[in-house]
Design brief:
With 250 residues, this protein is an alpha/beta fold. Helices cover 38% and strands 28% of the residues. α1 packs parallel to α3. The longest helix is centred in the N-terminal third of the chain and has 11 residues.
């Protein structure tokens, strides 16, 4: 069995790490490069940096932040936010990012994922999907969770796989920041329908939630933010707990 990955996520707003609940009410959590370096030292497998207002405000992800991250951090990291074309991705990968995440731009122009996979290889392309359970089923949202779309979660994830995504980062907006556990049912369904790795995001509150998501679904990685930023869970302890439940970790 492949070893499961633990991934801290750093949402970046105006150059600072922030965290909210259900995508709103943000509070400061520190310098993104310093935090990332601490996570790398403590055993994180990868990092995800999301410029959370880049799409909403019409900006590009800050390349200079990626330069700083690459200079100080020696584990793989993904960057996302406002990425909408091949030249932007080339710039970020050249600056040192290992992967890029696309979300709203892929919904606007699904062909973008084909183009990026062709240009850089699927292993570099993470499609982030923010979704919420509505009375019409799981619906995909864009622009940092602000805009509901007509796209249905599972068919959209499958389309992204077919177009060349190397990985899906699925965030349940209903679970985000609540610390009540991951969206197990949806993640289980998605991991049965896709063959590419899935990163579970939204809802981690304790070590049991990580054990549950790895035991009850076939996700490859679990991502969390505030519980790491505010030291509610330390990564070495989390990995020890997972090992006690016979979950393979690095």
């Amino acid at each position: 069995m492949l070893k499961k990955r633990i991934i801290p996520c750093l949402d970046v707003h105006n150059g600072r790490t922030v965290k909210g609940v259900n995508f709103v009410n943000l509070r400061d959590a520190g310098d993104p490069v310093e935090l990332g370096a601490l996570y790398a030292k403590s055993g994180a497998d990868e990092l995800v940096y999301l410029d959370i207002t880049a799409t909403h405000e019409g900006r590009k992800t800050f390349k200079h932040l990626v330069d700083r991250i690459a200079e100080h951090i020696d584990i793989p990291f993904t960057v996302g936010g406002g990425i909408s074309d091949v030249p932007s991705v080339n710039e970020l990968l050249q600056a040192g990012a290992d992967k890029v995440g696309v979300n709203s731009a892929a919904v606007r122009n699904p062909q973008l994922v084909d183009d990026l996979a062709l240009a850089f290889g699927s292993q570099c392309i993470v499609v982030a999907i923010d979704a919420r359970l509505t009375e019409n089923g799981w619906k995909v949202y864009t622009h940092g969770g602000r805009n509901e779309t007509e796209k249905e979660l599972f068919s959209w994830a499958k389309e992204m796989e077919n177009r060349g995504a190397g990985e899906i980062l699925f965030t349940s907006m209903d679970h985000d920041g609540t610390k009540n556990g991951f969206a197990i049912e949806a993640l289980s369904k998605m991991s049965k329908e896709l063959t590419i790795p899935i990163i579970a995001s939204g809802g981690a509150g304790n070590t049991e939630h990580f054990t549950e998501v790895f035991s009850k679904t076939d996700v490859s990685a679990a991502l969390a933010a505030s519980i790491f930023h505010f030291k509610e869970i330390e990564i070495p302890q989390l990995k020890e707990d997972l090992k006690k439940h016979n979950i393979p970790v690095r």
